[in-house]
Specification:
The complex is a heterotrimer. By secondary structure, chain A is mainly alpha-helical. In chain A, strands 1-2 form a two-stranded antiparallel sheet. In chain A, a hairpin with a 6-residue loop joins strand 1 and strand 2. Chain B has a single domain, classed as MetI-like fold (Orthogonal Bundle). Chain B contains eleven helices and no strands. The relative contact order of chain B is 0.14. Chain C is of the alpha/beta class. The termini of chain C are far apart. Chain C contains ten helices and ten strands. Classes of the chains: A mainly alpha, B mainly alpha, C alpha/beta. The interface between A and B is large, with 103 and 103 residues.
């Protein structure tokens, strides 16, 4: 046997072996749409030609051991349709959300006397509708991105602590403590934020204003504690658990070989983390950060309670040390006065923009995660 | 070649001062990150407990409502709010659990097809839907379009949209943990697929699914935005989900907020912290129990 | 009740990949037939086509036919669920249902197939099946305990009891001892000897000594060649296969020259 031949044979055997383990053990796609009750059987012509089959009446008058069909299959069919129906329900639900929000928002946007996307006005109680989302968009994005920027490094640190640094007995309680942050209702974060937390920030705000006040972002605009700065920090605490959870999950899955390769090069712990854990977890952490951002964009009640709404007609300020309203808080603040359809439509239009925003961010996060999954 | 090989000793300075310093710094920072997470948790819990505990021990707190009680008066209780929240969450759970279970089963046991991929994506989107958008949607459908009046049932419907994805995801995780050998064993006994799922697969994953349901309940019990839009708040006891304003724990907290700055009367503030503590006890209690259930199920596996 | 199994021109595919080609054999009732061969040659795959278990994998399908006492199990009117009720299977790793007691494990097939059955009847079945699996004496005092609490060998016998409780005519065993220690293996091999009085048994094994000990007939499977699908090289009396096989390739495998 030549070398070439034996190599080929090896390869063929490896392939067949893979197929065989695929068959006898637990193949990955086992749970796929394979139907154990016999879809995908191709009766061959040779089978049809066998006399035995000719003997067995296909019309099925209850002959032989396998006569009783029907009853069992119906159960399977019904159950399959039931579960698929539930799946379809979820898809339709999301579609309906988009459709209904659009349908209710369009008439109001059509009656809007100012540009919906570029106007800073919000006059919906009078006879003429004037509303635009530019202020809302700014406050929403500013507070959420600020929160994300604060939360991500901390989340990475905690995830590294849990997966790489903490002793085993400590890792679990630490993870548990972080998860507890997610168990606190957002309204409690809101009241804590506005009554206890935000007033404590004056010192930091004054400090930052003194040295960085020349940057518009850090210019102190109001003395009220209800700033985007305070709201953003509270949001950061709220989205910390979700980012941590995802970072933890990806760091835990760092392949052993990568870690050991780093150790074998004589790396310090930090160098090992930087060389193998961090790069491996990067896409996961990015998508975790985006999921956190999505959460922050839509967070309603905490931010509603904390942010102080500037009086109408106040000049625009991009500063963190200023109040404002997000899409969600604008809607929540007006919830009690949803009286006539056109007025409500303006708020629904704001809700629609928020929906699109969170949809885009979440979808992007999932795409990152899924692409990753295909590689690993 | 006359290259000089630098000699290093095992204990020696091969890791260099800068590297060692960076390593220590990283360790300190990573540990500090955990401390940073701990601060707000402890601070917040301490605030709520210290400010709310005395209200919880007042007589009638657990049994009476806020009927005829204003911010100028002490007393009253949280019963109407617990009742409202319990009713809304219970109805929401009754609707969510069957849908979510079926979706989870579909994705794991029948998944792989186009619809399944789309469904999985849509569940992700549903996970990310802000509660206020869910509430607006229900409002647009049932109140603007079908001219309903605000009522507790609509809150339940909005909460369904938030609860379903939580339960779907846990159900999926738990079904994935069920070994395929069990499915095969069942098929080999001549058991049809649907019975295999209902009698073998789901029972094996049961305690995990219960955990998911409890986490789902904990998530929606503290939701406030749908309440503002869909039911408002009533200080009276209203057990009718189908009509009228209804009390709820988050609603009661929110209702006290306008009087927080009141320096003459502190009753509203006390009440708010009391309600917040009550809500935290319930939600965190559910969370803890859910985690215990989950841990126990892992042991039996 | 045992039945004859025939395979006719059996080609087995995973999607487009032809895993095993042109298998033909006849297995007599009340006999033990061993499938041996190097790993990856498709012997487990062939076994799983005998009760249509291979179909649970997405994309798997067959051409050709398998007959049970002359009746096709791949006929268009045949429900695979019924096939599996007639042809039981024991797996490589013991897999009792973890949520069920020993008792419930044994009657799981019966209960799930047909719903209400009288308690006395179930009791009878449990005792009969556990006795049949040589397990009765060991577990009769703890039938209510979880099946997962038994030792590996006991669990495997519990799975055999579960398989025979539905009174199949054929029993397929896919390397039933590969996860067991030698003593448990011996117990299972003894059990196979007594089971063959009632059932047609087909056993896949990696262990040639085991094949020689338990089976009357042995089928040797191998890859047909470089990059080619698996095939049945020969099937003959066990004694002949191990002493004087007709094919050189069988001889090579038996004598340890490859595989």
């Amino acid at each position: 046997m030549t070398d070439q031949e034996s190599r080929d044979r090896e390869r063929a055997r490896a392939m067949a072996e893979r197929e065989a383990t695929h068959a006898s053990d637990t193949p990955d796609d086992y749970r796929g749409n394979a139907d154990p009750n016999g879809v995908g059987v191709i009766p061959s012509s040779s089978a049809l030609a066998t006399p035995a089959l000719a003997d067995a009446p296909v019309s099925g008058s209850g002959v032989g051991a396998f006569g009783a069909r029907g009853k069992v299959r119906i159960g399977d069919k019904v159950f399959r349709y039931l579960t698929a129906g539930a799946g379809m329900f979820v898809c339709i639900l999301i579609t309906l959300v988009a459709v209904f929000l659009l349908a209710k928002a369009i008439p109001s946007i059509a009656n809007d006397k100012v540009n919906f996307f570029t106007s800073r006005a919000w006059q919906v109680s009078g006879s003429t509708l004037e509303f635009g989302i530019v202020d809302l968009l700014w406050t929403t994005v500013l507070s959420s991105v600020f929160a994300m920027l604060l939360a991500v490094p901390v989340a990475i640190g905690i995830a590294l602590f849990i997966t790489q640094y903490a002793p085993r007995q400590l890792a679990r309680p630490v993870a548990f403590v972080v998860d507890l942050l997610a168990a606190i209702p957002s309204i409690v974060y809101g009241v804590f934020g506005i009554t206890v937390f935000a007033p404590k920030l004056h010192g930091i705000i004054d400090f930052l204003n003194r040295y960085l006040g020349w940057i518009p972002l850090f210019k102190k605009q109001i003395s009220d504690p209800g700033t985007v700065f305070a709201g953003g920090i509270i949001l950061a605490i709220m989205i910390l658990p979700i980012i941590t959870a995802i970072a933890r999950e990806v760091y835990e899955r760092t392949p052993r070989e990568n870690v050991e390769a780093a150790w074998a090069l004589g790396a310090t712990k930090w160098e090992m983390v930087r060389l193998s854990v961090l790069p491996y977890g990067k896409p996961g952490v990015i998508s975790g950060a985006m999921l956190g951002l999505g959460r922050a964009l839509g967070e309603t009640i905490a931010i509603t309670l904390i942010l102080v709404a500037p009086p109408s007609g106040a000049p625009f300020s991009p500063s963190l040390f200023y109040g404002g309203e997000t899409f969600a808080s604008k809607i929540a603040n007006a919830a009690a006065e949803f009286n006539n359809p056109t007025q409500t439509g303006a708020y629904i239009a704001a809700g629609l923009v928020l929906f699109v925003l969170t949809f885009a961010v979440n979808a992007a996060a999932r795409i990152v995660v899924n692409r990753r999954r295909e590689f690993s | 070649m006359t290259a000089v090989v630098p000699t290093t000793t095992l204990a020696g300075s091969s890791k260099g001062g800068v590297r060692a310093f960076k390593n220590s710094l990283a360790t300190v920072l990573v540990t500090a990150a955990f401390g940073i997470a701990l601060i707000p948790l402890v601070w917040l819990l301490w605030t709520v407990v210290s400010k709310g505990l005395k209200t919880l021990t007042q007589s009638g707190w657990w049994t009476s409502s806020q009927r005829n009680i204003t911010f100028r008066k002490p007393g009253g209780g949280v019963w109407h709010a617990i009742l409202g929240t319990a009713e809304q969450v219970l109805l929401c759970t009754l609707i969510s659990v069957p849908i979510a279970l079926l979706v989870g089963i579909y994705l794991i046991e029948y998944g792989g097809g186009r619809l399944a991929k789309l469904t999985s994506f849509m569940v992700d989107i549903l996970t990310g839907i802000p509660s206020i958008v869910a509430a607006l949607f229900i409002y647009a459908v049932f109140i603007t379009t079908f001219h309903g009046q605000r009522a507790g049932i609509y809150v339940s419907l909005a909460l369904v949209m938030l609860m379903v994805p939580v339960i779907v995801r846990t159900t999926e995780e738990m079904l994935k943990l069920v070994p395929n050998e069990l499915r095969e064993a069942s098929y080999a006994l001549g058991v049809p697929k649907w019975k295999t799922i209902v009698k073998i697969v789901v029972p094996t994953a049961f305690s995990g699914i219960v955990t998911g349901i409890m986490l789902g309940i904990a998530r929606v019990a503290g939701e406030t935005a749908p309440l503002l839009i869909l039911v408002g708040y009533s200080p009276d006891t209203n057990s009718n989900l189908l009509s009228g304003f209804q009390g709820s724990l988050p609603g009661m907290i929110y209702a006290q907020v306008p009087q927080l700055g009141n320096t003459r009367f502190h009753y509203a503030a006390d009440r708010m912290w009391g309600t917040a503590l009550t809500l935290i006890i319930i939600v965190m209690g559910l969370n803890l129990v859910a985690r215990l259930v989950a841990r126990r199920s892992k042991v039996s596996n | 009740m045992a039945k004859r199994i025939e395979a006719k021109n059996l080609n087995i595919y995973y999607s487009k990949f032809l895993a095993v080609s042109e298998v033909n054999f006849t297995i007599a009732p009340r006999s033990v037939t061993a499938f041996i061969g190097p790993s990856g040659c498709g012997k487990s795959t062939v076994l799983r086509t005998i009760n249509r278990m291979h179909e649970v994998i997405a994309g798997a399908h067959v051409q050709g036919d398998v007959l049970l006492d002359g009746e096709s199990i791949y006929g268009s009117a045949v429900d695979p669920v019924d096939v599996r009720r007639t042809i039981g299977m024991v797996f490589q790793r013991p897999n009792p249902f973890p949520t069920m007691s020993i008792y419930d494990n044994v009657v799981a097939g019966l209960k799930l197939q047909s719903g209400r059955i009288k308690k006395a009847e179930l009791d009878d079945t449990v005792e009969k099946s556990l006795r049949g699996a040589n397990l009765w004496e060991e577990v009769k005092d703890r039938l209510g305990k979880p099946g997962a609490g038994l030792s590996g060998g006991q669990q495997q016998r519990l799975c055999i009891a579960r398989a025979i409780a539905v009174e199949p005519q054929v029993l397929l065993m896919d390397e039933p001892c590969s996860a067991l220690d030698p003593i448990s293996t011996l117990a299972i091999e003894d059990l196979i000897q007594s089971l063959k009085e009632k059932y047609t048994i087909v056993i896949v094994t990696h262990n040639m000594q085991q094949a020689a000990r338990v089976s009357e007939r042995t089928a040797f499977f191998n890859l047909a060649g470089v990059g080619r699908p698996g095939q049945l090289v020969e099937i003959d009396d066990t004694q002949k296969i191990f002493s004087n096989p007709s094919e050189q390739r069988t001889e090579d495998y038996i004598s340890g020259r490859f595989g």
